[in-house]
């Protein structure tokens, strides 16, 4: 019970702080004595610190409390389809060091992914000037289905991974606790905590990059399904007997709105001539830039907005969310230019009542929010444990549920 109450107090401070003891009592429904005792413990342990004061009604100023940014540090890694990105943060989510490695092979071998993550972990720790024992945990986001709890087994057809014990492979290389989750879920957690999802209890955070995924939030909690594969929105069928997707199925949404699929559709329509650019992101940007001068580009991009709008409409009709947040590097490139057209496209396919109840917004945390979201995994563990340092029991930590 005490650990549970510490968790409630610490989560409130982290998510809504700085807060006074009075505000904590109001938010958590704990007695003033309990709040005072628990806050005293957290202050003594260094998890929480004072952060100024505010005037009260006729009494002494109320001291504000926040989670100490330097109590520990967290690392987030994104194992994507075009790069591996590793970032180190303090507990205020200020980025202190970043490193990225481009993926230059057709398929990223699990062993190479582990090498990049571990190399990145060592580099960001060195760059930030901290010691490894100050790192509370390493969260890793991958493009695939993640099964737990023992080994964080990853099924990622687009990476060529079939039941890869990725979590165990990482844990064998470090004493820092490891957590692994799907990249769309980590993006969703970051946006719900710090970005465009704040305040919503029923939301969908969509990730559109080379591939497509979504994080589903219902009643304020992440919905994962029976075996954690919920959210594979990119592999819902948008066209019967349509284009073959990288997953092997036909007509998947990802084959029409994922950056790889969009560029393939453009090349096919452009008599085999690809969009110019040194890599996928450059080519996708070039395609969008050429809309005003190329009829083929304009048609492909227009169709992409239509397909994405239909995909969003399916989410509206199925889940009745109050908010849909569009993120991912390709999603943001599209949304920054075509958000009004996208909203119109959703309205053409969705039922009127649930469409009128949903807002469609862009991710506020930028194109690299997946790694930031991965770094929230060890923070979530810290909050759930009421501030207990996970380094006290090093080793593999299963993906948070």
Describe the structure.
The protein is an alpha/beta fold and 401 residues long. The chain has 13 helices and 16 strands.
Helix/strand layout:
Elements: H1 2-16, E1 19-20, H2 21-28, H3 32-45, E2 48-54, E3 62-67, E4 73-79, E5 83-90, E6 95-102, H4 110-128, E7 135-142, E8 145-147, E9 153-156, E10 161-164, H5 166-171, E11 178-182, H6 183-194, E12 203-208, E13 212-218, E14 221-223, H7 254-257, H8 259-269, H9 280-289, H10 295-319, E15 323-327, H11 329-349, H12 352-356, E16 359-362, H13 369-384
Parallel strand pairs: 4-7, 7-11, 12-15, 15-16
Antiparallel strand pairs: 1-3, 2-3, 4-5, 5-6, 8-9, 9-10, 12-13, 13-14
Helix pairs in contact: 1-3, 2-3, 6-13, 8-9, 8-10, 9-11, 10-11
What is the helix fraction of residues, given as a range? 40-55%
Biggest beta sheet summary: 5 strands, mixed
User: What's the total helix number?
Assistant: 13
The string of secondary-structure elements, in order, is: HEHHEEEEEHEEEEHEHEEEHHHHEHHEH
Defining traits:
alpha/beta; single chain; five-stranded mixed beta sheet; 13 helices; 41% helix; 401 residues; globular
Short description:
Helix content is 41%, strand content 22%. By secondary structure, the protein is an alpha/beta fold.
């Amino acid at each position: 019970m005490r650990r549970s109450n510490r968790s409630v107090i610490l989560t409130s401070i982290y998510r809504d702080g700085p807060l006074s003891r009075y505000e904590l009592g109001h938010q958590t429904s704990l007695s003033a004595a309990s709040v005072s005792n628990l806050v005293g413990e957290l202050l003594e342990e260094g998890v929480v610190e004072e952060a100024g004061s505010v005037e009260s009604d006729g009494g002494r100023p109320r001291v504000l409390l926040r989670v100490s940014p330097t109590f520990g540090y967290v690392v987030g890694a994104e194992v994507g389809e075009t790069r591996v990105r590793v970032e180190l943060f303090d507990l205020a989510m200020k980025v202190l060091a970043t490193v990225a490695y481009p993926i230059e092979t057709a398929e990223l071998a699990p062993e190479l992914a582990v090498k990049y993550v571990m190399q990145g972990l060592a580099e960001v720790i060195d760059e930030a000037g901290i010691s490894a024992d100050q790192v509370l945990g390493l969260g890793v986001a991958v493009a695939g289905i993640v099964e737990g709890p023992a080994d964080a087994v990853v099924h990622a057809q687009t990476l060529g991974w079939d039941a890869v014990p990725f979590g165990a492979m990482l844990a064998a290389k470090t004493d820092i606790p490891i957590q692994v989750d799907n990249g769309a879920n980590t993006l969703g957690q970051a946006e719900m905590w710090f970005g465009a999802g704040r305040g919503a209890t029923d939301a969908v955070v969509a990730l559109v990059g080379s591939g497509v995924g979504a994080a589903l939030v219902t009643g304020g909690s992440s919905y994962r399904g029976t075996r954690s594969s919920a959210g594979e929105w990119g592999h819902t069928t948008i066209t019967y007997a349509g284009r073959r997707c990288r997953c092997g199925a036909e007509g998947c949404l990802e084959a029409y709105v994922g950056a790889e699929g969009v560029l393939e559709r453009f090349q096919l329509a452009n008599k085999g001539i690809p969009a110019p650019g040194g890599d996928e992101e450059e080519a996708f940007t070039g395609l969008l830039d050429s809309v005003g001068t190329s009829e083929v580009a304009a048609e492909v991009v227009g169709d992409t907005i239509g397909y994405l709008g239909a995909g969003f409409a399916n989410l509206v009709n199925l889940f009745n969310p109050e908010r849909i947040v569009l993120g991912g590097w390709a999603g943001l490139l599209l949304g920054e230019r075509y958000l009004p057209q996208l909203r119109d496209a959703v309205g053409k396919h969705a039922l009127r009542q649930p469409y009128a109840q949903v807002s469609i917004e862009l991710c506020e945390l930028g194109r690299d929010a997946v790694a930031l979201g991965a770094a929230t995994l060890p923070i979530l563990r810290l909050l759930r444990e009421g501030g207990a340092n996970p380094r006290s029991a090093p080793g593999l930590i299963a993906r948070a549920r």
